[in-house]
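Researcher: Structure prediction, please.
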Amino acid sequence: MEWFDELNLSSISDDKLEYIITKAMGIVGHTTIPVGTHRLYRCRPYRDNNIKRGSISDLSQPPASITKEGRCNVAEKPVLYVSDNANALVKECYLSEGQRLCLLQFDHLAKVEEDLNCLMLGIEPHHALRQSPEMLEVSKFWEEFYGKEYRKYREVVSFLHRAFVRENGDGTPVYKFTSSLCERYFSQNKALDAIFYPSIANSGEWRNYAIRPDVINKAYKATKVVFCELDKDNSFKWLDGGKIEDNGDISWGHELFLDLPVGVGISRIDVDDPELYIHPLKK
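Model: Predicted structure follows.
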């Protein structure tokens, strides 16, 4: 696809950016799929000693007035960033040794009417679920869905994967293309709950969600929070644990630790519905 050839994610002109976004969206489209996993994790790093951790609102997305451009958001348009693996957050949040942070755990609700309505960007199901026996069925589904455009679709997905995990040569993040692309999807599809995209950690081995503010509550509940410090081996040194009260306040002083992540699988919404979706594996 020659229209990607001159792309420079840090210095691209507005006209070129607009052109590439329009071309990519024309091939990928707005296809969404319900996505869920047992646990999601959010990191709230602290850059100084001004540490606020009294309520869950202190740990969620920032207010619009101070929101900077990110991987999936433009300035002043916050989203809630979470990952399906807490270890991915070390690199995602550019944490440094000795830095203090809070790690918030969300658990999938036992009963939900609908999982998060997600758009997969830079991810194909067989990337995330290589060991699932249903992958042949899923691959066939996408191939039939896109028809003669399937080859172009695969090429665009591959490009988007590289775009989402890209850094500058000095290790700083590159946001301009992906932030503008995600903003376009969110603004054009009001039913879209989240963007499901590859984590920069391990070149996409883990996945992230960029979720519209407050939408996470329809399928997940924040269950615990851990206050910790990043150790020299990139592990989390536990300092304190907090329970989350019904009103959102955090009760600290509890010996609580994060639960391990649980993978996702492929299932059907019901046995008579041919649509496939990604959902929590059985425990």
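Model: The mean pLDDT is 84.
Researcher: Thanks, that helps.
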